[in-house]
Amino acid sequence: MAWGEAEVRVAPDGTSTRLLRDGELVVELAWTDATGAPAELEVADEVEHTLQVPGGKLLQRQSVADAWRARWVLLPGSDVALTAKPPRVRVRPGPEYTLWSWGSGVTALLAVSPAHAEGPVLGFRLEQGYLEEAGDPEWSSATADYLVAPRGSELTAGQRLVTALRANWFDRIDDLAAKLPPWLNDTQLDEDEEWWGDLADFGVSGPDDVQIEYAEGMVCIAGQAGRKALDVHTPRGLSRVPLEWVPSLQEVLDDLVRTSLGLQAPLTAAEAFCVQCAADRHLVRLDDEDQDLLDRVDWAADESPLGAAFALLRGRNLGEAALVSDALRVLSRLPVGVGYGRTVMAGWLASLSVGMDARERCLELLGRSAVGRTALLESSLLHYRNAEFGAAELAGVANRLGGMLPGEAPLLTWNEQAELVGLLELCPPEWPGAARYSNVADKARGQVLCGYVDNRIDDAEPLALLLLSPELRPGG
Questions:
Q1: Cβ contacts of residue 248 below 8 Å, gap of 6+?
Q2: How do residues 400-446 score in pLDDT, each as one tens digit?
Q3: Contact 99, 409 (CB under 8 A)
Q4: How far is CA 114 from CA 61, 401, 431, in A?
Q5: Cα separation of 412 and 141, whole Å?
Q6: Segment 231-242, tens digit of pLDDT
Q7: Domain spans of the chain?
Q8: Burial class of residue 286 (count of CB atoms within 10 Å of its CB; 0-12, 13-18, 19+)
């Protein structure tokens, strides 16, 4: 089905629907666990299928007009409890695209954006039904699953469950903010900040560790550091709103380092890097046993730049030029991925602090070919090329982190999110869009820090990657 400059292709058996633009896959939608069947209606702007699903059947309609609409009606054959395995929609962005989602119940939004350019962006708005990020191991690194009913819901014979998505094109990802609920204020706050919303006419509930008060027709909510899910019951249905009270980086670093040292077990390169950063910032005082743990770190065996980054910090702290030189030698053997260039810059600064100017050696390392477009962007930013070079890549990085939209990147790992934060921090402040990139980086960094407070992150590498950039800047 032709849809403007794009084309919607429904599989002959109805099990998947793909949107292509300029011959490239933008996104693919599918109802999981559906068994295909021939189309029952097929015209120029609409295709309908009746699919079989466990315990019932699924009526599917894909249509195009001013928007692309995908509609599913689940009809159970008997009483069906949706608790064990709630039905779900699967979303797979194309290889050149990235997915961001505000999967918050009846007000859900999805954004499928170019990963290496600013736009155009395909935005999905939930017209009817419910969506919630599944957040379980059923999804792969290339697809994201969304529940179409809250866990614990039940659907009895004679009832039906309707899920309808409407897709439109937007110039930029931030343009989707106009489709968010009008009562939604900033969802990321400082630790001592209160959240206010025009929700007095709705039912509002949250976990036991948040305080909810009503004042002058508004709802005021206070909470401790971390991410808290707020349930908002509107006439349309349930919205789940994650509020984030962001702790300071120093607080998260201090907690992680004290935990790592308290185990008195061998440290990973990322843990050692965090420990050395905390010591350099006078957050912790290292005793002889702690120093021994750092001395025994096998940093040269680490396949990421973090091993060399630790050795550079350690060499600078101890005044050992040989350790700095060894770290630069290890860097010469590593592939030039994201974080490599920033670590090389740290090598130059470390060399100056131990009395050996390794400028020429570091320039040679920075001149190596980068692996992938994202690493090439880091290299170009460190070489301070003009604003036009890599502008599309910078915009794509912001897209991958959701711009200034609330929500999450369901297909990014915590490490990848932290790496992208560091790239946006490298944007020179005088370049176009630099203020926005800084704000996007702040938002994404806050999400990582909340992940530590909530124990959703259990390793040191994302925090180490967040710490990588500031240590590399002159005077940083």
A1: 191, 449
A2: 999 999 999 999 999 999 999 999 999 988 888 999 999 999 999 99
A3: yes
A4: 27, 12, 21
A5: 8
A6: 999 888 999 899
A7: 2-179, 188-245, 249-472
A8: middle
